[in-house]
Specification:
The chain has helices spanning 13-22, 25-29, 33-61, 65-73, 82-89, 93-105, 127-149, 153-177, and strands at 109-113, 121-125. By secondary structure, it is mainly alpha-helical. The chain has a domain at 21-62.
């Protein structure tokens, strides 16, 4: 199967990077100022759309952005620590303390002493928090479904493949900046 024929589930990150590396220096140099401007405009508009969506979600679920993002982390984990949350959210631990305090006050998460290490406090969802997380995820699924319905099936496949390639390209450039 050639890369364009691959289904997104089978599309491997290594294939994307390999394809990017196969581009000749000549084809990279053929990027016009118009394409650069168009790319910048589209990325800016997508970012703005994502920010507006995030603001709407915060209002809909009556949660500050940081608390909403923190709550979503529990979809992947049963227990988290403040240190783990700080790392995943890319914020300092003192900021996590404030975020966790808000979620505890809303009864969405609870503190549990680590049975193996008394110096560590584990954080987990309460039943109320799990219900809220399920509500948020159901909304996300609905919105994403509606977005994808705006495209024909083949357009969806192409768009998802291209977004995966865009993500890989952006991550590659990000690594060069560090």
């Amino acid at each position: 199967m050639t890369a364009p024929e691959k289904n997104l589930d089978n599309y491997d990150f290594v294939d994307i990077v390999h394809g990017m590396n196969q581009l000749s220096e000549n084809s990279r140099a053929e990027i016009s100022d118009h394409q650069i401007q168009q790319f910048q405009t589209l990325v800016t508009k997508l970012f703005q759309c994502c920010q507006e969506r995030a603001q709407y979600q915060c209002e809909r679920f009556q949660l500050p952005d940081a608390e909403l993002r923190c709550l979503l982390l529990f979809g992947e984990e049963r227990y988290l620590t403040s240190k783990g949350i700080a790392y995943k959210m890319n914020v300092v631990k003192s900021r996590v303390t404030k975020i966790v305090k808000g979620l505890v006050e809303k009864k969405f998460i609870q503190r549990i002493p680590d049975p193996e290490d008394s110096r560590i406090t584990l954080l987990s969802l309460t039943a109320h928090g799990q219900k809220k997380l399920n509500e948020i995820n159901k909304f996300y699924d609905f919105v994403n479904h509606q977005v994808l319905l705006q495209m024909e099936p083949e357009q969806r496949k192409t768009m998802l493949t291209n977004l995966d390639m865009l993500k890989a390209s952006m991550e590659s450039v990000k690594e060069m900046m560090v």
